[in-house]
Amino acid sequence: MQLRVLSFVLAGGKGTRLYPLTKERAKPAVPFGGQYRIIDFVLSNLVNSGIHSIYVLIQFKSQSLLQHLRDGWEFSGILKDRYIIPVPAQMRSPGETWYRGTADAIFQNVNLIEQSDPHVVAVFGADHIYRMNIREMIEFHEQKRAQATVAAIPVPKEFASEFGVIEVAGDGRVIAFHEKNPDAPTMPGNPDMVLASMGNYIFSTGPLLKFLYEDSKMEKTSHDFGRDILPRWVSRGDVFAYDFQTNRIPGDPIGAPVYWRDVGNIDAYYEATMDLRMVTPALNLYNRQWPLRTASYDDPPPKFTFDEEGRRGSAVDSIVSAGSIFSGGMVRNSIIGRGVRIHTGSTVEDSIVFDNCDIGRRCKVRKAILDKNVHLAEDTVIGYDLEADKQKYHVTESGIVVVEGRRSRVQVSSIEV
């Protein structure tokens, strides 16, 4: 069966808990894993699943995200049904507001649905790190003849207050939604786990339009799928939960566990990123049948120079991105972005270094995140005296030091006069 699938990616989040990494960019534009951005995961999942008609809904501090979409995610104009188009708030609400909730974000772009007339609409967030074969979720939606399908993942009961929890029957039909309720019901047969919504949805077009228009006329609503529309929907239509644990990625070993991480704060972001350097990381970036796509740059390979005692360019248990040069510097257990320079006598340990940072001679950096374009003067020490670090940098309760960077230079064309 040929299904017309239209996808919306919700990429307008502020990401306030990731501050200061979100000081100059929206959360989906935050770098991850050396050369990627968080939004690359949802876009790669869609494209790898054969879904090529994609609108990216943007809002807060979107310039960095727009530049990344331009550099890495522009399709050719030859095939008209293949596009990734950023869409700002259309001000179609009665008060001509920005997006007021996930449902309002879709309603303000309801014309895009109506003029393309898809069979199903996929609404996915851009805030999480995960791999998902979305085609399987759509197949589940069609097999169940569902009107709405919600991707769900089991989480320990103690985290129920952090998620929208789904109460389901034995066949996966949704009975109720419990928004961030610590006393939410547990999964059938498993009293220690609750079924959490991942914020990813598949909707049949007709019922979706009906509920969007209905919600737009209501006063007592936050215009959100999880809080408002879906709780009303379950009593009037067929809503199912798709068990993310059943999802299988082509090219992965049989029985490989699924991967999904909420990187909503600095500590969670740090842990998810540092996991990549493990011998066998939970997130497989090396599956050629399911590539993680991103922008391509004309960077040279990384280079390690000098082999002298006390002046040896090297990296151990680390990921190093293109264009970086370790000129006598040592890196351990770290993730290094593009175009980073680490000079003689410096050591970087247990850290995440974004693009174009320059670490001067004899610097010592430990358990830190350096944002883009950070320049450390010679003999700078970070991560060894947290009280001193707090006077200059942002330090989390767990002791991660975040160093703010500088704005990247943007080239402007010139004319001869």
TrEMBL record:
<feature type="binding site">
    <location>
        <position position="197"/>
    </location>
    <ligand>
        <name>alpha-D-glucose 1-phosphate</name>
    </ligand>
</feature>
<feature type="domain" description="Glucose-1-phosphate adenylyltransferase/Bifunctional protein GlmU-like C-terminal hexapeptide">
    <location>
        <begin position="300"/>
        <end position="403"/>
    </location>
</feature>
<protein>
    <recommendedName>
        <fullName>Glucose-1-phosphate adenylyltransferase</fullName>
        <ecNumber>2.7.7.27</ecNumber>
    </recommendedName>
</protein>
<keyword id="KW-0808">Transferase</keyword>
<dbReference type="Pfam" id="PF00483">
    <property type="entry name" value="NTP_transferase"/>
</dbReference>
<feature type="site" description="Could play a key role in the communication between the regulatory and the substrate sites">
    <location>
        <position position="98"/>
    </location>
</feature>
<keyword id="KW-0119">Carbohydrate metabolism</keyword>
<comment type="similarity">
    <text>Belongs to the bacterial/plant glucose-1-phosphate adenylyltransferase family.</text>
</comment>
<keyword id="KW-0067">ATP-binding</keyword>
<dbReference type="GO" id="GO:0005978">
    <property type="term" value="P:glycogen biosynthetic process"/>
</dbReference>
<dbReference type="Pfam" id="PF24894">
    <property type="entry name" value="Hexapep_GlmU"/>
</dbReference>
<feature type="domain" description="Nucleotidyl transferase">
    <location>
        <begin position="9"/>
        <end position="276"/>
    </location>
</feature>
<dbReference type="GO" id="GO:0005524">
    <property type="term" value="F:ATP binding"/>
</dbReference>
<keyword id="KW-0548">Nucleotidyltransferase</keyword>
<dbReference type="GO" id="GO:0008878">
    <property type="term" value="F:glucose-1-phosphate adenylyltransferase activity"/>
</dbReference>
<feature type="binding site">
    <location>
        <position position="164"/>
    </location>
    <ligand>
        <name>alpha-D-glucose 1-phosphate</name>
    </ligand>
</feature>
<feature type="binding site">
    <location>
        <begin position="179"/>
        <end position="180"/>
    </location>
    <ligand>
        <name>alpha-D-glucose 1-phosphate</name>
    </ligand>
</feature>
<dbReference type="InterPro" id="IPR011831">
    <property type="entry name" value="ADP-Glc_PPase"/>
</dbReference>
<keyword id="KW-0547">Nucleotide-binding</keyword>
<dbReference type="InterPro" id="IPR005836">
    <property type="entry name" value="ADP_Glu_pyroP_CS"/>
</dbReference>
<dbReference type="InterPro" id="IPR011004">
    <property type="entry name" value="Trimer_LpxA-like_sf"/>
</dbReference>
<dbReference type="InterPro" id="IPR056818">
    <property type="entry name" value="GlmU/GlgC-like_hexapep"/>
</dbReference>
<dbReference type="InterPro" id="IPR029044">
    <property type="entry name" value="Nucleotide-diphossugar_trans"/>
</dbReference>
<dbReference type="InterPro" id="IPR005835">
    <property type="entry name" value="NTP_transferase_dom"/>
</dbReference>
<comment type="subunit">
    <text>Homotetramer.</text>
</comment>
<keyword id="KW-0320">Glycogen biosynthesis</keyword>
<feature type="binding site">
    <location>
        <position position="99"/>
    </location>
    <ligand>
        <name>alpha-D-glucose 1-phosphate</name>
    </ligand>
</feature>
<feature type="site" description="Could play a key role in the communication between the regulatory and the substrate sites">
    <location>
        <position position="59"/>
    </location>
</feature>
<comment type="function">
    <text>Involved in the biosynthesis of ADP-glucose, a building block required for the elongation reactions to produce glycogen. Catalyzes the reaction between ATP and alpha-D-glucose 1-phosphate (G1P) to produce pyrophosphate and ADP-Glc.</text>
</comment>
<dbReference type="InterPro" id="IPR023049">
    <property type="entry name" value="GlgC_bac"/>
</dbReference>
<comment type="pathway">
    <text>Glycan biosynthesis; glycogen biosynthesis.</text>
</comment>
<keyword id="KW-0321">Glycogen metabolism</keyword>
